[in-house]
Amino acid sequence: MHLAYPAVLSALLFCTGLYGVLARRNAILVLMSVELMLNAVNLNLVAFDVWLSRTARETLHSGQALTLFTIAIAAAEIGIGLAIVLAVYRNRGTSDIDKLRDTAEGPDAEGPDGDHPAAEKAEATA
Amino acid sequence: MTLAQAPHGFLSPAGVEIAFLLVGLLTLGAALVTVTTRQLVHAALWLVVALGGLAVEYLLLTAEFIAWVQVLIYVGSVVVLLLFGLMLTKAPIGRSPDADSGNRWAALTVAVASAVALVWVVVDAFRTTWIDLDGPAAGTTEVTGASLFRHWVLPFEALSVLLLAALVGAIVLSRKAKADAEGEGDGKAGADGKAKADALPAAPGKEGAR
Amino acid sequence: MTTTTLAVLVPLLPFLGAAAGLLLGRTAPGFVRPLAVLPPLASLVLAVLVAARQGGGTAVDAHTELTPTGSVPIELALHIDGFAALVAVLVACVAACVQIYSTGYLRDDPRYPSYAALVSLFTSAMLLVVYSGDLIVLLVGWEVMGICSYFLVGHYWETPEARAASLKAFLVTKLGDVPFLIGLFALAGDAGSFRLTRILGAVTSGGIDHPTPVALLLLAGVAGKSAQFPLHTWLPDAMAGPTPVSALIHAATMVAAGVYFIARLLPLFEASRAAMVVLAVMAAVTMAGSALAALAQDDIKRVLAYSTVGQLGYMTGALAVGDRGAAVFHLLTHGAFKALLFLAAGVVIHAAGTNSLAAMSRMRGLRDRVPDAYWTMTVALLALAAIPPFSGFFSKESVLGAAEHVTQGHTGHAPGAAGWIVLVAGLLTALLTAAYAARLWLLAFRGRGTEAPDHGRQPLTMTVVLWVLAIPSLALGGLAYRLLPDWFDGRDLTPTLLTSILGTGLALVGGLLTYGAWQRGTALAARPPLGAVAAHPEADAGLVEAEAIATHRPAYGDIAYAPDPADPGRLLLGPLHRPAAAGFHLDAVYEALFVRPVRAGASLVRFLDREVVDTYVRGAAALPRLLGAAVRRAQTGNVQTYVSALLAGTVVLAVAVLLVATGA
């Protein structure tokens, strides 16, 4: 089998997951998209492991071992991620990512943008 | 060398390649529906299809142990967990018009650009590489177990520590939320469900490690 | 204790009193009065002791070098000769009188603690100037006096007059101090030392290369400090301060410092004939002009201020003819009777409730209200007018005698021209001085009209001081003119017959002329009264004075002028009256020459700064602000947007790296 088939499939799945992470509003859907991306990587790992174990006589099977690790870690990640999402939901009443904008300047902080030149002018005349 | 011979063209696929392509298209399609559908629960179900398709691809790549682990953990528990999450956050059943954020065109641009770049690089690099799937399977349970417990014992044990940490972390998060929620009245049901939901990730994690 | 220790204590005690007064003024109000009065009294005792020990003999010299400065050494030095000893006694005496008087005059003033401390500091600075044997230490005292006068003149800073006057006093004296400082450095550079004795030694041995520029530069500072033409304009305005401060500034401290400084360095000035002539012209213009101006003033304190300027002109005149003995003699007697005049004027202003002579001339019986002030002021005015046997007569005649001596041309130290200038101006001024003294006395105490208001007796602290000062005003001249030559240069101070007859005769003529004019004007004085009487006549004297000064301009339209047709000065001066009242419009000239150009320049600079420089600043700020606004728009708080941007950048970078790596 051509290595390009799983590799291209993996790349496309990864980008699909990427789109989901960037475009989905619901945090749980974002987590699903993250799973898609992880699986794309897993597919890559398995494909290359199979390829290398034949062509390079690689006996460690590092690709498959790492795939297992990735799956385990992904399971842990989804558990913690869901716990966080639920905590946020309980605190904020929403799990929409684009409503969680505490890092931005609030609407009250936008005041200086409006009246800043006036204040500066008053300072200059003082 | 197989590389030097390279008798295999893209236009003369073997049977396993055709199967891989078909399942791959199904997987990709399911993944695309997952990230685009407006019905949140359907997204989780289409994710099952995509993950199951991937399990089939693993089988086709002779990695049977990985395939079964995939089915057990992803299809069996992760998706269930996600569905629980959807329910606990009171995700709407049916079409929700705002499933995608305003960022979708930027996201589409970035995703398409990276897809083009990745596919271009991958095809450019591996268009002649051939995987020889004949002979003994590369991913039987015996082979995987041997390598895992012979060469990868130390990372394996380290991983179990990580899973323990995740378990403790999930418990701490849920307990704190529970203490907070007790002050309120209506957060009680969510807290209860949450405790159940948090008990789950540890189990598939352990299971996956084994 | 040695004489040196005593002499060090003399300026130190008031300084410590001032420091303690400033520190304790708020926390321990009970200590303020003792702290104000006792240090000057102790200084007076010590100064008398120092004078007795020095006794006019050889000068006491002591010096210590604090630290090597690398170039011209700066030392803490004392140089006490007869001049220093006697002037210190005068300063301490007047300061003690002023402090005692102030306890009554400002008894209800909330700012009395700081006021008393500043007066003490002022006294300390003057004593430092008097005793110092090093020009830099002298300069320290000189400048401390400048800042103290700023604060004291502006004591009533609530009134705009006081604020303006304190600023003007400070700026004008500083204007003189800049060339003064340069002159000091030039002098020390030539002589190689700031020590007085070394400089005088260098002068006698001809070690000063350029005596004329140095002397003229120093003269500028002296003119500013001693209120000589053309830098005298601050002194009449300084009347906005409390009366005791005026007494202190005018009699003993600030204005005396300039004269005293020239007296100390007179050999240097004598080395330059040009400087002596300039000094003589300055003295002549000052005394004649100020006497004319004094004749036209309506504010009783401004009359006295201009008379101070004139008497200082006598002193500089004496210096211009090379007789510092006469100058310091006049300084001593003038200090006594001018302090008395000011303090008595304070009492009169308090009793009358106004500082306007025109208003006083319409009050009957003012002298019965303040008999102490009436009698002592009469004595002091006679001394001012140089009527024998009052003290002013002897000192003024010694000045005129010295000038006459120089006119005969057998002196090497002063040019004959200077003698003529001083003599003629001095005689003219004697006439005018008597005229304005008589006018002041007649208008203040011989008023006709309504009965003067009765505010009860004046505080004892204020009247006792007047009598204390009346003694030297009456007798100092007659007793001292035979003794003083031993203390001074040894030159005879006895009045000569010719100048005595001339001076006294002119003074009598002036007085009689004024009396005649006053008699003619009495008919006009019967018109309805014009007067500005303070609103709180029962309050303490300081408040009454502040209100009187503040109401003078609203009542008469000018701070120095009153439209009084019965004023004898108006008859005597004729068309000169209006310009004389305004100080010959010198302030207007300064306004046009200096103030307006400086203001125009300031507004130009302000315009340039605000409109031109700030435009660049604003422009420099605008671009970052625009960029900041753009960047802020990107900062939405949406994590997905951030990750999108991050990944887009990653893709772009990866593609770029790939293209580079493949050589495309």
UniProtKB/TrEMBL annotation, chain A:
<dbReference type="InterPro" id="IPR001133">
    <property type="entry name" value="NADH_UbQ_OxRdtase_chain4L/K"/>
</dbReference>
<dbReference type="GO" id="GO:0016491">
    <property type="term" value="F:oxidoreductase activity"/>
</dbReference>
<keyword id="KW-0812">Transmembrane</keyword>
<dbReference type="InterPro" id="IPR039428">
    <property type="entry name" value="NUOK/Mnh_C1-like"/>
</dbReference>
<dbReference type="Pfam" id="PF00420">
    <property type="entry name" value="Oxidored_q2"/>
</dbReference>
<protein>
    <recommendedName>
        <fullName>NADH-quinone oxidoreductase subunit K</fullName>
        <ecNumber>7.1.1.-</ecNumber>
    </recommendedName>
</protein>
<keyword id="KW-0813">Transport</keyword>
<comment type="subunit">
    <text>NDH-1 is composed of 14 different subunits. Subunits NuoA, H, J, K, L, M, N constitute the membrane sector of the complex.</text>
</comment>
<feature type="transmembrane region" description="Helical">
    <location>
        <begin position="65"/>
        <end position="89"/>
    </location>
</feature>
<keyword id="KW-0560">Oxidoreductase</keyword>
<keyword id="KW-1133">Transmembrane helix</keyword>
<keyword id="KW-0874">Quinone</keyword>
<keyword id="KW-1278">Translocase</keyword>
<comment type="function">
    <text>NDH-1 shuttles electrons from NADH, via FMN and iron-sulfur (Fe-S) centers, to quinones in the respiratory chain. The immediate electron acceptor for the enzyme in this species is believed to be a menaquinone. Couples the redox reaction to proton translocation (for every two electrons transferred, four hydrogen ions are translocated across the cytoplasmic membrane), and thus conserves the redox energy in a proton gradient.</text>
</comment>
<keyword id="KW-1003">Cell membrane</keyword>
<feature type="compositionally biased region" description="Basic and acidic residues">
    <location>
        <begin position="113"/>
        <end position="126"/>
    </location>
</feature>
<keyword id="KW-0472">Membrane</keyword>
<feature type="region of interest" description="Disordered">
    <location>
        <begin position="98"/>
        <end position="126"/>
    </location>
</feature>
<keyword id="KW-0520">NAD</keyword>
<comment type="similarity">
    <text>Belongs to the complex I subunit 4L family.</text>
</comment>
